[in-house]
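Q: Can someone sanity-check these two? First one:
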Amino acid sequence: MATLLWILAVVLVVAGVLAIVRRQLLWGIVLIVVGLLVGPGGVSVFT
């Protein structure tokens, strides 16, 4: 389960960075924050 959370968190953060590069600042910030919350190193919403 931890590996799946890491993969999901990485995908969300990368998508957030790409959104910021495409000048969608708010959406990018939201994706990065959600990615950090979902990741096992953050406050996981699943535990």
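And here is the second, same format, sequence then tokens:
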Amino acid sequence: MGGKVFQRNFKATMSLVARGEGIYLYDEEGKRYLDGCSGALISNIGHCVPEVIEAITEQLKKIEFAHTSRWRNKAAEEAADEIASIAPEGMDYVWFVSGGSEAVESAVKLARQYFIERDGMHTSKALVIARWNSYHGSTVGTMALGGSIPRRRIYSPLFKEFPKIVAPYCYRCPFDKKYPGCGVVCAHQLEDLIKNIGSQYISAFIAEPIVGSTVGALTPPDEYWPIIREICDRYDILLIADEVMTGFGRTGANFCVNHWDVVPDIIATAKGMAAGYVPTGGIIVRNEIAETIRGGSGAFVHGYTYNGNPVSGAATTAVLRYMKEHNLVANARIQGEKLGKGLKEIEASNPIVGEVRGKA
């Protein structure tokens, strides 16, 4: 019979993609399609950029794989330098993986190990607080963090649930309040839950700076992230920003948290990191956390086969240099402002539009 691809959706009819160029995809008949959603919000610099393809090809001629339990590789180290150059200050360490789900899993495990290294094996800090109306990945562990009911429904018996608070969903406020008179109660709910559980049991809080796939472009009030940062600091809890979707210029800033001048303890990221050219993700880690591991056991008790893959490193470096050379982050901000203005005009004249959301 021959091999068959296990389709993502057997009941959907999809065109066969033949090639890509810039912002367009082409089918076998040569018909051109605007890749309006950039794949799964991953193709940040467009398809088939020659400079990136050349960098990947040259790396393949040197070494395609060397396991990081035995080898360092220059490609990954150059990629870490490029990432650190645009990351928030004091976040110079990068742990490379193959995608967003692996990045979030790595962040959660690192948070746990950090407190063990700092306080000893007796520490009870293990729980991670997350939010409803969130998405953090498709593994069993990351689904337990996520608050997307349709994705969780059939798999929920498989995982250990994590505690959650509501998302900052002003359009359908779960507290039936109006901003700004609400006092940003959705952010202060984190402190209430911490008090109920006990901060001694909590290692981290994870959230998307702007929610992507579960509630489109759900943008929090400007006070939200600074309040969250202050609460985490006060209760000795790490702040994990899930920037898998929003990182690397997607919102017109290097990282979305830059909009509020908030520095997380860990950033989980992927997608735009290598812009779809090679499966790539990673966590960007505050220096003090990495140095605690270095000065303690010396090893992160975690790993994947493709950690620090040299081809992923070459792709990441090429993508980030291309972004810098062509000022793509600034351009994303400019185009976002234009799009936002146009959508607001539609909202004002069309009663079926409930709310236009985004970050300018």
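A (reply): Looked at the second one. Strands lie at 17-21, 24-27, 32-34, 93-97, 127-131, 164-165, 202-207, 238-243, 266-269, 281-285. The two ends are 53 Å apart (CA to CA).
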